[in-house]
Amino acid sequence: EDSEEGCEVNGRVYRDGEVFQPSCKLQCHCLDGGFTCVPLCQEDVRLPTPDCPYPRRVEVPGKCCPEWICEARDQRLLQDAGAVSPLLPYPCQEWGTEWSACSVTCGVGFSTRVSNQNRYCRLEAQRRLCMARPCPALPAASPAVS
């Protein structure tokens, strides 16, 4: 077959070297029978701030890329500690970055990520312990030489 001369994406064949957009959110490049794509929408992260304590990404009618909005939510909704998951006024679309590399090359350190996978569906920085590998034993102390 002519798979080396193009690539097939969603049932459509593109020529080798052709740049195409399978959706408004992606731009792709066909090369040697395969393809690579880059996002056209910003994949930025917005952490809570005093002027925007509940940022939320929403789809905007008529626009391709989602946008950040700030919500002012009733604090009483968030104070019910007995509930496993509060009734949010919108469906929570889980989102998060990958865990970072461990903060140390040996021994116990920490890894971080930004995620909304919590009971309030709110973006937050999260940390967890990690160990890349045990640290080598330190050599025995020797007397100082002057």
UniProtKB/TrEMBL annotation:
<dbReference type="GO" id="GO:0005634">
    <property type="term" value="C:nucleus"/>
</dbReference>
<keyword id="KW-0964">Secreted</keyword>
<keyword id="KW-1015">Disulfide bond</keyword>
<keyword id="KW-0130">Cell adhesion</keyword>
<dbReference type="InterPro" id="IPR043973">
    <property type="entry name" value="TSP1_CCN"/>
</dbReference>
<dbReference type="GO" id="GO:0045597">
    <property type="term" value="P:positive regulation of cell differentiation"/>
</dbReference>
<dbReference type="GO" id="GO:0005615">
    <property type="term" value="C:extracellular space"/>
</dbReference>
<comment type="similarity">
    <text>Belongs to the CCN family.</text>
</comment>
<dbReference type="Pfam" id="PF19035">
    <property type="entry name" value="TSP1_CCN"/>
</dbReference>
<dbReference type="GO" id="GO:0005178">
    <property type="term" value="F:integrin binding"/>
</dbReference>
<dbReference type="InterPro" id="IPR001007">
    <property type="entry name" value="VWF_dom"/>
</dbReference>
<dbReference type="GO" id="GO:0007155">
    <property type="term" value="P:cell adhesion"/>
</dbReference>
<keyword id="KW-0732">Signal</keyword>
<dbReference type="Pfam" id="PF00093">
    <property type="entry name" value="VWC"/>
</dbReference>
<protein>
    <recommendedName>
        <fullName>CCN family member 5</fullName>
    </recommendedName>
</protein>
<dbReference type="GO" id="GO:0007165">
    <property type="term" value="P:signal transduction"/>
</dbReference>
<comment type="function">
    <text>May play an important role in modulating bone turnover. Promotes the adhesion of osteoblast cells and inhibits the binding of fibrinogen to integrin receptors. In addition, inhibits osteocalcin production.</text>
</comment>
<feature type="domain" description="VWFC">
    <location>
        <begin position="5"/>
        <end position="71"/>
    </location>
</feature>
<dbReference type="GO" id="GO:0008201">
    <property type="term" value="F:heparin binding"/>
</dbReference>
<dbReference type="InterPro" id="IPR000884">
    <property type="entry name" value="TSP1_rpt"/>
</dbReference>
<dbReference type="InterPro" id="IPR050941">
    <property type="entry name" value="CCN"/>
</dbReference>
<dbReference type="InterPro" id="IPR036383">
    <property type="entry name" value="TSP1_rpt_sf"/>
</dbReference>
<dbReference type="GO" id="GO:0031012">
    <property type="term" value="C:extracellular matrix"/>
</dbReference>
